[in-house]
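Predict the holo structure. Ligand: adenosine-5'-diphosphate.
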Amino acid sequence: MLKIEKLFKSYASDTYALQDISLVVERNEFVVILGKSGSGKSTLLRCINRLVEPTSGRIFLNGKEITGASPSHLRQLRKNIGMVFQQYNLVDRFSVQTNVLSGKLASVSNMASLLNLFSEEDIEKSRQVLNRLGLAGRELKRADKLSGGQQQRVGLARVLMQNPQLVLADEPVSSLDPMTSNQIMDLLTEFNKKEGVTVICNLHLPSLAKKYGTRIIVLSKGRVVYDGSPKDLSEAQLSAYYDSQ
Ligand SMILES: Nc1ncnc2c1ncn2[C@@H]1O[C@H](COP(=O)(O)OP(=O)(O)O)[C@@H](O)[C@H]1O
Ligand SMILES: [Mg+2]
């Protein structure tokens, strides 16, 4: 479903944040991108939906090219891609429900969204989604009044509302304690298994990567140094990747 060909990204003229990345992700995979801080994980994820503009290379979603897509075509393609962020990226002063409904904004005209004209159907769906994620009764709370784990569940609810084919999660549990982290990772796994959503999830902890990934891609200095099953990734390899500068 996702194909990346010879992707390079350079922020400054003489260094590359990503170098020569080529990979194919099939539908229904749960891919973990693993690597230490600065290895290029966020840049890779953000190139996929062009929050970061690649320097060269091509990216295709279901055969349609994302790189080079016009703004209106890109908007169409992005409807299929949900994003989950480390810092949740909620609108703090908005209610939980408004944050969740904003997952529909890609398909509601801007004017309608400004006027809060969400359909009854969307509002009902947002209730169901919040219920499913254990947030029933919190619809009207301000987002910033929730705990970190609850805020990330709102982030996941927003993604479910969007009904995407692909979810890109950039270190979604790095700000959470271990128990809450597992709850969030379990929910992503459930979307992957039940809804058939393809997941690409950046993590920096090998233990979480091995627990949740069906495939692990290790990045080091902007290059892919491992791409395979979690069980074939040895501790020796991991420490080599993590200790190299
Ligand atoms: N907006 C930016 N401008 C300049 N350099 C950046 C920017 N974002 C990231 N980088 C650099 O790109 C490299 C990869 O960063 P990043 O993709 O954030 O890695 P990770 O998510 O694995 O920590 C790092 O050297 C980082 O300093
Ligand atoms: Mg990052």
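The chain has a mean pLDDT of 92. The pocket of magnesium ion (ligand 2) is lined by residues 41-42, 171 (CB under 6 Å).
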